[in-house]
Structures are given as C-alpha cells and as structure tokens.
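Class prep. Sample record?

___
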Amino acid sequence: MKIESVFAVVLASAVLFASCSPSYNSVKRMQRLEEGVSNPTTKEELEEAIKKYEGRAMDLVLTESQTGMWYKLLGTRYLDERMYRKAYEAFRKALLYYPDNAHLYYYIAICAGYIANSELDFDAKGGMETAERMNYLKLSESSYLKALEIDPKYYRAMYGIGVLYVFELDQPADAIPYLERFLDTQKRDSDAMFVLARAYYQTYQFDKAVVLYDKIIALNPNAEKTSEAKANKKVVLDAQYAN
C-alpha cells in the first residue's frame, strides 16, 4: 500500500472514532445486543453484568488510546511535510487523549512558532497581524513551559524555549537558565552555544559570551560555524572594550 493510502486510512479512522465517541448509553446498547445484558436484578445477574461491562470498558479504553496515537502519528507526518497548521490541529486532538504527554506540548510549541512566522494575512500587507502572531508565539512559550512542567529534564524543550526567547520574544535573560541546563547535558551542541552566547551578549555578559565562542572554535564543528564564532567573538570584544 502506498504511504499516501496509509495516511488516508489513518486520517479516516481517526475522524471516524472522533465523530463516534462512545457514551454510556451506546455502551449499554452494545451490551444488550452483543452480550444480552439488560436489567440485572439478582446477585448472580449483577455479578455477570459487571464482568461483561468491565470487558466493554477495557475495549473502549484501548480504542481511545489507539485514536490518540493515530492523531500523534498524523501530526508528525504533517510536521515532516511542513504543514504546520494541520500538524498543530492533529496534536491538539491527540492531547484530548493524552493530556499529560510532554512530547505533544513540545510539538504544539514547534508548530505554533512556525505558524507565527510562516503564514500570510492576504488582507493585510504581506504578513500576519501583529496581535495574532504574538498569540501564536505566546502559545509556543506556554506549550514549552507545560512540556517542561511535565518533564523537567526534557532537553529539547529547553533548547526550543531558549531559541524562542532569544530570537522571537526578545527575552534573552529568560532564555539563559534553560540553555545553560540544556548544555549541562548536551555539552558539545554548538547550535545551543551560539544561542546562549547571543543571549549573554544581549544581556551584556560579554565574558561569558567570549568563553562560549572559544568553546565553539575549539570544537571546530565545521568551517562555517568556526568562522562565524570567530567573527561573533570579535563583535563581543569590540562591544566590551567600547564599554
């Protein structure tokens, strides 16, 4: 089966389950039709009915769990295709089934950030309205924070919110503790070093920025990054001496 067909089946199944969410009355109807449970009165009838209803309840739990996983899978496929709004909607639906899943909040944060920067308002002057864009950026922030509330060691969320604070929300001071914690475990991640060095520079912590650029130069991840680190270090030193 082609991959497009697989995703079509996943989507159709997810929509079907979402539109036919089981209720107490539907469970009772299915019990009467399939298992002959109606209105038990005696002790024996009640015990038998309980056993049958417990089985039905487990079926419903498994169905709900599978639907949530399908929505998460669908969201990741949309994300792979850079269809950020569709991915965002799929992950939101997955949260209905897994409200304490840190990964889903992380994915929503990513999607919201991309939506804020990639969509056009064709009735305006070529860009999303400022208020709407800020709403998506704040949604991204709150989603990263929720992911970290659920899993305080979720290092990808630490990096994500650091980037958001430095490059989108102009809150470099807020980014620093998250990026420092990230680099406590991901010690050779030069991308995070660049972001943290920028945050140090923006908050006038020039010495710390220079130390990070020296680390990148020593790591020498590739010629381009090493050259950029050297150029950035010079900018920081010039600003430091100017002050």
Summary: Confidence is low (pLDDT under 50) at residues 1-24.
